[in-house]
User: Fold this.
Amino acid sequence: MRRRYLAIRVESEGSVNRGEVTDAIWKAVGQLFGEYGASQLGMVMIEYDEQRSHGVVRCSHKTLPMLKASIASITKINGKSTAIRVLRVSGTLKALHKKYRFRQ
Amino acid sequence: MTATKSFGDLHIRPSLRDMEQVKRMVVKSAELGFRLVGITLPYNASLEVIEKLRKICSEAEVDFATRVDLAPKTSHELLDSLRRFRRRFELVSVLCTFKSVARQAAKDRRVDLLSFPASEPHKRFFDNAEAELASRALASLEVDMAPLLLLEGFQRVRLLSCLRREVAVAKGFNVPVTLSSGASTEHLLRSPNELVALATLFDTASERALEALSEVPFAIVRRNREKLSHDFVAPGIRVVRGRDCCLSE
Assistant:
C-alpha cells in the first residue's frame, strides 16, 4: 500500500497534546466521511512535538484528499479555537523531513 | 501548484473596532499565501478606517479590496443601495434572502458576488433561472467556507448538498464561482490548498477550485478598479488625453 506523510502544524488558543490532536482528526473524519470512510483512511499519528505543535500524520495515498479535507474542517479542540495546517505532503518520511526539516 | 498562482480571498470579516485583530488576520492571510484580500466594510466606513486598513495590508504586502455586503429585503431596496454604494466600494456582494432580490442581483451588472444564507436551504435561490441571468451579467457565485466549518450534523449535510447542486448549475451556465473564507477570526482562515481540499467535499475539481481562488477574484477586482478609475468611459474605452492636453497643442 502506498502511503503519504503529512507534516502538520496545530495553531490553537492553548496547548493541545498528541491524543487530543489525533482524536480531533478522527472525529472530523467521522463527521465528514462516516465510519466506513474512517476505516479506509489508515491514519496514524507518527510523531507530535507538543512544544512546537508540529506533527507528522500518515495515511494511505488514496485517502489523502479525505484526510486533507478533514484536517481543514477542524475548528476546535477541547473547546479551544484551533486550525491545523498541512505544511507538506510526501511519499516517504525521509523525504518529508528533508523537505520540511521537521526535526530542526 | 501554488508557486505559479496568486490567490485572493475576497471575504474576510474582522471586527473593525479591533485593529489588532484586523492586522493579525491580514498577516495570517499573507502567511497562508493570499496576495489579495477583500475586507467587509460598513456602508458608512470612513476614509480614515479605509486608509488604516490599506496601510495594514500594504505592510503585510497584500492587496486590499474594499467590500460591502448588501442584504436588501426588496429589489427596490437593492437598486437604491447599488445606486448609493456602488462607486464607493471595489466589491459589492448581495446576500440574497428573497427570490426577487436574487433575480434582480443576478441580472444587475453592478453586482459582483451573489451569496446565499448558509443555514437556510429554502432561501438558496441559485437555480437554473438565476444562473442564466447571472451568466448574462457579471455576477459570480460566492461560496463562503466559514459556515461549512462551523455548521455540524444535518445542517452541514444540507449545506454540502446545496453547494454541490449550485456549483454544478454554475458550471453548466458558465457562471464564475469564487471561494472565500468568510472568516471572522484568524482560526477560521484557511490556505488556498485547504480551501481546495474543502471544495472537494462538494465535488469541485481541484483545477476549478484553484480558478475560483485565483483568476476569478483577481478578474473581478481588476474590472472594478478599471470601472472606478476617473478615465473609464466604457469597457475597453478610457480617456487617454484630457481636454487641457488637446488645448495645449
In short: The interface with chain B takes residues 11-13, 31-32, 65, 68-69, 71-73, 75, 81-83, 85-86 of chain A (CB under 8 Å). Chain A has a mean pLDDT of 91. The two ends of chain A are 29 Å apart (CA to CA).
